[in-house]
Design a protein that fits this description.
Strand content: 15-25%
CATH class of the domain at 70-176: Alpha Beta
Distance between the termini: 184 Å
Shape: rod-shaped
Order of helices and strands: HEEEEEEEEHHHHEHHH
Number of strands: 9
CATH architecture of the domain at 70-176: 2-Layer Sandwich
Radius of gyration: 55 Å
Structural class: alpha+beta
CATH topology of the domain at 70-176: Tetrahydropterin Synthase, Chain A
CATH superfamily of the domain at 70-176: Band 7 domain
Length: 291
């Protein structure tokens, strides 16, 4: 009875050992992780997503490394620009592990190492740029920081997927000086705009005066042409009609002058030349004869 009991215990122990060995040997790796296998304490291979078998008791799964994209905590980094302005820069750094063996066996604290390198790189890059360049050209600075970090990150088996400068903080004295500079720049632009407006107004006024002068000259030229035509016509009439045409023109001028004198409010006595009276009497006589 004792022998049977001992044998049963041995069988049960062997069965449990086999079950435990199978459990150790059969492993299912999820999609978001890589598992690192060590054989007798030495790194052997990397297990990616799927079903894998390991040798129980000889091989051990030592590390389960997540390979999802990870963001570093967004801490502020103190830096001094090329024009000696103290600023604080906040970065958004995203990375993912592409070689899990390097990330575990070549660096002890990966995130701390990345932050240390980031701090030094940011200070170096910002130190070569003035404050206006940091404010206006963040994308270029982020690209330069990313390119310098990428050289170090390959040694640790990671890949930087995104580097962004999210915020730049400036001390109060610098802010006040920048505000004064901004106000002065706005005032200068306003004065320039006002001067440009006055210049355009003066230019338009000059163009209007030139246009008016050109139109006046054109009108005078037309009037002179009309007067010249009138003189030419009268001259031709005199040439063709002789003395009678001259007398007619003279009498017409005299009649016009007498009419203007008669229309005056201060005119009391109107003197009519004798030749005009004779002309008028001749005209009246011809009218009476016809009646």
């Amino acid at each position: 009875m004792e022998t049977f009991t001992f044998s049963t215990i041995v069988y049960i122990f062997i069965l449990l050992l086999v079950i435990y060995a199978l459990k150790l040997s059969i492993n299912i790796v999820p999609q978001s992780e890589n598992w690192l296998v060590e054989r007798l304490g030495k790194y052997n291979r990397k297990l990616e997503a799927g079903l894998h078998l390991v040798i129980p008791f000889l091989e051990t799964i030592r590390h389960k490394v997540p390979i999802l994209e990870t963001q570093l905590p967004p801490d502020y980094i103190d830096a001094i620009t090329h024009d000696n302005v103290s600023i604080k820069v906040q970065l958004a750094i995203l990375y993912r592990i592409v070689d899990s063996s390097r990330s575990k066996y070549r660096i002890e604290n990966l995130q701390l190492a990345i932050k240390t390198i980031v701090n030094g790189t940011v200070r170096s890059v910002v130190g070569k740029t003035d404050l206006d360049g940091v404010q206006s050209n963040r994308r270029h600075l982020a690209d330069e920081i990313e390119s310098q970090l990428q050289l170090v990150s390959e040694e640790w088996g990671i890949k930087l997927t995104r580097v962004e400068i999210t915020e730049v903080q400036i001390d109060d004295n610098t802010k006040e000086a920048m505000q004064l500079q901004l106000n002065a720049e706005r005032k200068r632009r306003s004065m320039v705009t006002e001067a440009e407006g006055a210049k355009q107004a003066a230019q338009l006024h000059a163009e209007a005066q030139l246009y008016t002068a050109e139109k006046d000259a054109a009108a005078k030229r037309i009037l002179a042409d009309a007067q010249a035509y009138e003189v030419t016509t009268v001259s031709r009439a005199i040439t063709d009609g002789g003395t009678s045409a001259v007398d007619f023109e003279i009498k017409k001028i005299q009649a016009s002058a007498i009419q203007k004198i008669a229309e005056g409010t201060n005119s009391k006595i109107i003197l009519i030349p004798s030749d005009v009276l004779s002309s008028l009497s001749g005209v009246i006589g011809r009218v009476v004869d016809k009646l």
